[in-house]
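Translate structure to sequence.
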């Protein structure tokens, strides 16, 4: 395939959705942004000749369409002409479940289907949409990540880690599968974890439930006031900020509203700054794949507080944006491949089985 008709440096987006309202909303919204060229198709069979004639940089794909459903089309694209795919899905019931299946099949991002016209579309929703598409365009399209081998109890006991009260993890584009790999390798008595994964409202609950089924740790969407407990992972709800507070009995999660921070809600920076204040040297933070700089400022604060700070390496990231920014600011103790991150958590970043070399 050869790309024709696109301005140099522009980002070509093909929206495939059977809803004329959604197609027009996204077309108008993105056409107002510099550097975007948008084409639309009502279903996959109409999209195929357009892709042959002018290959897109990013495919925005609905999952429920006539003639060929989106999941079938996604599998066809990944097998025949891999490119970054962003799923545009309804956020409740079948929509969120199907979107998570699509992420496992190779899609790199999910956005919520617009439910109102472009004039009423919230400005901050537009910001997040544009960021999602730009992040997807930079993504390395990969085959689905195989689940990690569970960490053995014997290996855990062989090298006890220094005191570790709380683990914070931040991720964006590509993070859903990275988290599935990471958490799937940890034992049921791993340290308490709090996680921000950039994901729209309504999808994080389904994501947490899927992880809970796949992992030995318990995983659920965070609720305000939840205790941070050994063997428990709390996922920030979509469209809400997640922070932690120290209490006499330990740490508790706080879920709150507020403005976008680092262009996101939930924001990794918000979580990491709270982790630095509440846990300091008793904390470990890990920054996974994702576009942008969310988490870098918070990682600097964690480093200054004495926390252990880790980042996923470029080779294993779908998008090496967030980790790269934190590394550039001197906030990262160790840079590790994804495969080494479970052991690093259990050994608090120290050299252990499967750990990469220390960062210079």
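Result:
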């Amino acid at each position: 395939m050869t790309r024709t008709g696109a301005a140099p440096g522009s980002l070509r987006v093909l929206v495939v959705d059977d809803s004329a309202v959604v197609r027009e909303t996204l077309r108008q919204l993105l056409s107002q942004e510099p550097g975007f060229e948008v084409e639309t198709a009502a279903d996959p069979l109409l999209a195929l000749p357009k892709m042959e004639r002018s290959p897109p940089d990013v495919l925005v794909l609905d999952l429920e369409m006539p003639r060929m459903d989106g999941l079938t089309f996604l599998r066809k694209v990944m097998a025949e002409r891999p490119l970054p795919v962003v799923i545009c899905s309804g956020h409740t019931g079948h929509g969120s479940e199907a979107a998570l299946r699509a992420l496992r099949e190779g899609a790199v991002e999910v956005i919520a289907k617009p439910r109102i016209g472009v004039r009423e579309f919230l400005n901050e929703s537009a910001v997040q949409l544009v960021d999602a598409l730009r992040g997807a365009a930079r993504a390395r399209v990969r085959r689905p990540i195989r689940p990690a081998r569970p960490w053995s109890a014997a290996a855990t006991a062989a090298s006890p880690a220094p005191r570790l009260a709380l683990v914070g993890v931040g991720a964006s584009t590509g993070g859903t599968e990275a988290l599935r790999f990471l958490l799937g390798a940890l034992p049921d008595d791993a340290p308490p974890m709090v996680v921000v994964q950039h994901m729209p409202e309504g999808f994080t609950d389904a994501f947490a439930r899927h992880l809970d089924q796949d992992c030995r740790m318990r995983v659920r969407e965070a609720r305000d006031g939840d205790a941070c407990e050994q063997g428990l992972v709390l996922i920030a709800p979509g469209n809400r900020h997640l922070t932690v507070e120290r209490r006499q009995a330990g740490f508790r999660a706080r879920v709150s509203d507020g403005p976008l921070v680092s262009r996101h809600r939930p924001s990794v920076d918000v979580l990491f700054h709270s982790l630095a204040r509440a846990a300091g040297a008793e904390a470990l933070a890990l920054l996974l794949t994702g576009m942008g700089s969310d988490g870098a400022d918070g990682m600097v604060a964690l480093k200054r507080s004495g926390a252990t700070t880790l980042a996923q390496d470029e080779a294993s990231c779908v998008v090496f944006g967030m980790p790269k920014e934190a590394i550039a600011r001197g906030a990262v103790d160790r840079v590790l491949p994804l495969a080494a991150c479970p052991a690093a958590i259990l050994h608090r970043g120290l050299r252990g089985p499967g750990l990469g070399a220390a960062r210079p």
